[in-house]
Amino acid sequence: MSPYLRLFYNKWKHLLLIVAITYLCILYLPIFGAQQPLEVTDQSHHLLSAHQQNIQLTGRPEVVVKKSLEEYHGPIIPPSKLTNNQENEKPPESLNDGKFVFKMDPKGGGEPFYIEDIMTSMNTTLKERLTCKNQQNVKPKILLTWNAGHGMENLGGCRDWNCMVVNDKSKLNEADAVMIAFDDPSFKRRDSEQYTIYFSQESPMNAGWHMSQRRDFFNLSLGFRHDTAAASPYGYTVKLAPQSRKSPPLYDSLLVDKKTKGAAWFVSHCGTNSKRENIVAKLQEYFPVDIYGGCRKLKCPRNTPCEDALDTDYHFYIAFENSICKDYITEKLWNQGYRREIIPVVLKRSIVEPFVPPKSFIAVDDFSSIPELANYLKYLMSNKTAYGEFFNWRSDYRVVFLNGANHDALERPWGFCQVCRLMWESPRQRHIIEDFDQWWGRSCEHDGELARKILTGTVENKPALEVNNPNLRDRINNFNKNNP
Ligand SMILES: *[C@@H]1O[C@H](CO)[C@@H](O)[C@H](O)[C@H]1NC(C)=O
Ligand SMILES: *[C@@H]1O[C@H](CO)[C@@H](O)[C@H](O)[C@H]1NC(C)=O
Ligand SMILES: *[C@@H]1O[C@H](CO)[C@@H](O)[C@H](O)[C@H]1NC(C)=O
């Protein structure tokens, strides 16, 4: 066994055992009857399960996750079974003064809302993304997942588009697209009409395999990268259409005004590629940061009420990723960072800025030193008006976290649904990821590079307008003079 696997095994053997037993029970207990296969796929193959497992486990669990995905050979549920009771599911589209507007109706509860745009670096318009040239009553388009898991439920956001996800390799010739997660020499593209799609939800640092031999091999990538038509991020930002915009109050001032604590950091990996732990350690010298997690004294298991302290106690949420890679933003920011009454702090502005609401976060690399960052955070704690300005975006924007539990309209602009849409385009659009090794394998900063620059004050930084504003500088300086 490799050292990683052994470490992983030692740390998580009990959990693994419980998971294995639960899995077997679900699979074989007769009381679950014929519904079982769908349950199983739902539990193990939507994108989030893999995310969550990765979040909760230490080390490099993706090996394990992917192995189980690869070994999966559950039955495929025909679309007719899935569309039962779903007649009214097709989200209506409407026009607003000639502008395309889309109604999002979250299955997981909550009011429907209308959007007019989504924040992405991809240049397809919202209307293009949400318009599929599908035909009914003909053979569905087929996405074959070669060794990348997933199943029909992943098309839940676009059941009306007539596509299928299959995992039977003998369907290679019929497939319009094939998704692969690991190199497999036995896979041969049928012809140039068939899309070959790379699947990875991990950052290139942790995905392990760079496929340097596969230059110009992939057409699309299904993962967090936005610069591919099959992008499938962990969350996204929408611009609300006028009918869904909000007026103040935009945050709960009863909660926010009672906050007393500095920042919270929830962490399971103790040491990371980004060396974010070194930045947090330095920040702690100047600013109170409570650290929760596997290798720390404070504990707060995921999805338990103690997480509410993010709404009630803490002013800032440390949302540092384990690696600094192009477009790599995980649930840390999309879920805890934006779905709480809290301001997220990220490492690098340029990575998140294209995808998140304006003035919604604090970036460490805007500051020339950690003490300067600490002063700014202390100032915001002392001035609740300035603090509250970080929620102004909520009037016009909304952040959607794709938690993978509900395959609904929120997934329609992304991932599987977009592959489905592309499979129906005629003539087939050409998409090629040129020089995959460059595109994927070289899309991360070297380990600890940013942390080193931040800690030595050598970030080539163009401080954000906000922090550089002379009036604000004076205010922060005044505040710090009076509160040494
Ligand atoms: C999007 O960008 C690609 C490449 O830069 C270009 O070929 C394509 O025409 C653009 N599409 C739109 C809708 O602008
Ligand atoms: C508090 O913040 C508000 C809004 O940014 C600003 O107008 C005000 O001058 C600040 N007050 C102090 C005492 O710095
Ligand atoms: C897919 O990629 C291959 C290899 O680069 C290319 O030859 C083919 O034309 C592409 N097919 C489509 C449909 O984009």
Report how far apart the termini are: 54 Å
Summarize the amount of helix as a percent range.
Answer: 25-40%
* Strand residues, percent: 5-15%
Q: Which whole number gives the mean pLDDT?
A: 81
Number of helices: 19
Number of domains: 2
- The helix-and-strand class reads alpha/beta
Q: What's the overall geometry?
A: globular
Bound molecule kinds, no repeats: 2-acetamido-2-deoxy-beta-D-glucopyranose
Q: Sketch the major β-sheet.
A: 5 strands, antiparallel
Give the beta-strand count.
Answer: 15
Radius of gyration: 23 Å
> Unreliable runs, pLDDT <50, ≥5 residues?
29-91
Polypeptide structure, described:
One of its GO terms (molecular function) is fucosyltransferase activity. By secondary structure, this protein is of the alpha/beta class. The chain has 2 domains: 50-237 and 404-441, no CATH class; 246-395 and 448-482, Glycosyl transferase family 10, C-terminal domain (Rossmann fold). Helices cover 32% and strands 15% of the residues. It has 19 helices and 15 strands. The chain has helices at residues 3-28, 36-45, 47-56, 62-71, 79-82, 126-129, 204-207, 253-256, 276-284, 309-312, 331-337, 349-352, 370-382, 384-388, 415-424, 436-441, 449-455, 465-468, 470-482; strands at residues 93-96, 99-104, 113-118, 141-145, 163-166, 177-180, 195-199, 220-222, 235-240, 261-267, 289-293, 314-318, 343-346, 362-363, 397-401. Strands 1-2-3-9-15 form a 5-stranded antiparallel beta sheet, with helices on one face. β7, α7 and β8 form a beta-alpha-beta unit. The longest helix is centred in the first third of the chain and has 26 residues, at 3-28. The radius of gyration is 23 Å and the shape is globular. The structure holds 2-acetamido-2-deoxy-beta-D-glucopyranose (3 copies). One 2-acetamido-2-deoxy-beta-D-glucopyranose binds next to loops.
